[in-house]
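Quick illustration, no need to memorize.
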Amino acid sequence: MARARPPHPRSPGGGRFAVPYLYLAPALVLLVVWIYRPLVQAVELSTYSWNLLPTTPMKPVGTGNYERLVNLPAFWDSVGRTGVLIAGMLPFTVVLPLLIALASRRVHGRARTVYHAFVFVPFLVAPVAAAAVWRWLLHPGSGFVDQVLRSDRNWVYDVGTAHGVIILITGWQLLGFAVLVIWAGLAGISGDYDEAARVDGASARQILRSITLPLLSPTLLFLVLTTVLLSPTLTFPLIDSMTQGGPSQATTNIYYLLWDYAFHSFDAGLSAAAGVLLFAGFGVIAGILVWISEKVAFHDD
């Protein structure tokens, strides 16, 4: 009786080589359609003068939009406000979340669950709904804040306080997300380090300074990166709902200025040029922060 021959092993080439790319294909297609294609179109649009009307021809201007943009004081003012916004957000996305996360380690049982829920709830509130509630709280004279402080200040439409109000509300919303990220970072740190340090006679402060914070540094750098990249974007619904960039452009950051050029001034080319410069600038900052994060993670290993 003839033996059945074992099947020949498949060659490593051919179809097996393409399998990983088939898994990646849907994500790559979405990346190209929703990220790289609009980016290329924005770069192309930045070289034209156009008022967004289909009946109006697009006039090529080369680098004229970029030259006009960098000579506008409003552009540089908005860049400065964006920097102030990011600096004002860091305490809400790094410092306070770190303190809250460290304090929560002393809470146990059901109280810990309630504590976590109260911290995270503001992140679930829609920005437009949050803007409506905060406008009511900050209403001049009759608002809750003015009643508590016994003042009659128009917090939202005062040049001296409007930007601070936007920073405060955005930080209040992002606080829960940042605490959640730090909780995840703390959960990834083995308790063996603390136990070994206690055996060697280290105090709680020494353990925090020499073990916990260095091991948590990649997580903190990630929060810094997300703050830099996302804070100006997340403020847009609040600014559009509460101040519309005012008063006297006190709350107009670079993202809102980009939108204003496109849909208020109907200058699509100038808006696209601002978007391209914004993408390049934040890309450089993100690259530097990622490089620092990798260096810190490598040093910790």
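The chain has twelve helices and two strands.
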